[in-house]
Write a structure and sequence with these properties.
This protein is an alpha/beta fold. The protein has 14 helices and 15 strands. It has helices at residues 15-20, 46-49, 58-70, 82-94, 108-125, 146-151, 155-158, 188-203, 229-239, 292-296, 318-333, 336-357, 391-402, 423-441, and strands at residues 25-29, 32-35, 40-43, 99-105, 133-137, 168-171, 208-213, 243-248, 271-274, 286-291, 361-367, 370-375, 404-405, 407-409, 412-415. Helix 13 crosses helix 14 (423-441). The protein starts with 14 loop residues before the first helix and ends in a 15-residue tail after the last helix. The relative contact order is 0.14.
Length: 456
């Protein structure tokens, strides 16, 4: 099988580098996955932030099999399926009452792409056709399709495809740990919001259709914005008639220790984008959930200009919807949101204990089982290692050799194990991470001294 890896493109990895040392997974059970050589790993990334219920969940597998026998596809241009309607009812039951309508799709990029298009079409159909611009954050990520990529804030992911669609304006990342200006921590939320307000004023409010953001910015390094930032952004959007879109593709369905990350701020958007954990990773499934105010602009009869002019063959697929129904039931019946909150607190505490022994960890942050460790050369000044060190990537690779799969950037490591993870498994994750970090530090001149961890 390995010889075939030179013929496949995998996400965000150079083909040659991947082919030289490929990861080829063959099965999974619980929080563990196994490769073609029989080596077992802890899936510390939940596939890609989506295997919230762990691998090999029999209930969900059987729900998919039953639906495949019953109806595998409903013609999406002529109608829908009973399973799609059941999932619609379920989603409206578990979201706040202002949400009344949703568009079922297959992936996160489809959901955020749809939300951006909906925002622009909404303003055109409500008499404000000059509103077309979309605000988002630098270092944010909202998917790989055209509009979603244009809203993203990482130059490296955008450069190959530029020029992208126009009308996208980027703001500072609301990062409390590494702000671009000095100030007491309690003032940062107001400062970031004031910068956003200035951009709105300079761009002209009558030209701005939407503001899209992840409540917790995963690709930026699990940036949790200041507690007053999102409420201030909500107020700005209300004042200037800008639709607020939350990209909760990763943070929804218990990942942050709440059913939705919006609950941490009690601040809700006009369009709520959901995916990944919505099906527990067992089927491609996502949704854009609309408040009544937004949905009402698309309610019409014979005038097809009022309808939403976008769709996908597999959006609302009955098999995916059956999986989503089973996944949501499993999430609630297993009290997995509460487990994510408890195990997340345990993971943060464990990583902060590692931080005491390894001062190269500058910050530990996150909510629930979405946690990051920031790696710095000098914790006092928060000075990072030079980019060429790629310390985060090196720790990720060392962890893989030890049997732990993690997400990483040049100076950050991200943990997102399944919501089914036990207390004992959290201890194992933290221990393997510390061993991987120690291995890397021994290769870096001038790194803090490495002590053996207890029990190692």
């Amino acid at each position: 099988m390995k010889e075939l890896t030179r013929h496949i493109m995998v996400d965000f990895l150079p083909m040659k580098t991947f082919a030289e040392d490929p990861l080829i997974l063959t099965e999974g059970r619980g929080i563990y996955v196994t490769d073609g050589d029989g080596k077992r790993y802890i899936d510390g990334l939940s596939g890609t932030f989506c295997m919230n219920l762990g691998h090999g969940n029999r209930r969900i597998v059987e729900a998919a099999a039953r639906q495949m026998e019953r109806l595998a596809l409903a013609c999406p241009t002529l109608g829908t399926s009973d399973r799609a309607l059941e999932l619609t009812r379920k989603l409206l039951e578990i979201t706040p009452p202002q949400y009344t309508t949703l568009k079922l799709l297959s992936g996160g990029s489809e959901a955020t792409e749809a939300a951006i298009k909906m925002a622009r079409q909404y303003h055109k159909q409500t008499g404000r056709a000059t509103k077309y611009k979309v605000l988002s954050h630098y270092r944010g990520y909202h998917g790989a399709t055209g509009h979603a990529l244009a809203a993203g804030g990482w130059p490296g992911w955008r450069a190959a495809y530029e020029p992208l669609a126009g009308g996208f304006v980027h703001l500072h990342t609301p990062d409390p740990y590494s702000p671009p200006f000095a100030g007491p921590p309690e003032t940062l939320g107001a400062a970031y919001a004031r910068l956003a307000e200035e951009v709105i004023e300079l761009e002209a409010p009558e030209t701005i259709a939407a503001f899209i953001t992840e409540p917790i910015m995963t690709s930026a390094g699990v940036v949790v914005p200041p507690r007053d930032y999102l409420p201030r952004i909500r107020e700005l959007c209300d004042r200037h008639d800008i639709l607020l879109i939350y990209d909760e593709i990763i943070t929804g369905f218990g990942r942050t220790g709440r059913l939705f990350a919006a609950e941490h701020w009690n601040t809700w958007p006009d369009i709520l984008c959901l995916g990944k954990g919505m099906s527990g990773g067992y089927a491609p499934l996502s949704a854009a959930v609309l408040t009544h105010r937004v949905a009402d602009a698309f309610w019409g009869d014979t005038d097809d200009r009022v309808q939403f002019h976008a769709g996908h063959t597999y959006g609302g697929n009955p098999v995916a919807c059956a999986v989503g129904l089973a996944a949501i039931d499993e999430l609630f019946e297993g009290r997995l949101v509460e487990n994510a909150r408890a195990r997340g607190a345990q993971l943060v505490a464990s990583l902060r204990a590692v931080q005491q022994r390894r001062p190269v960890i500058g910050d530990v942050r996150g909510e629930g089982l979405l946690v990051a460790a920031d790696l710095v050369r000098d914790p006092a000044t928060r000075e990072r290692y030079p980019a060429e060190f790629n310390i985060g990537i090196r720790v990720r690779d060392a962890a893989r050799r030890l049997g732990l799969l993690l997400r990483a950037g040049p100076a950050v490591v991200v943990f997102a194990p399944p919501l089914t993870t036990s207390a004992q498994e959290i201890d194992e994750i933290a221990g393997l991470f510390e061993d991987a970090l120690s291995e890397v530090l021994r290769t870096i001149d001038g790194a803090p001294a490495v002590e053996a961890r207890a029990g190692a």
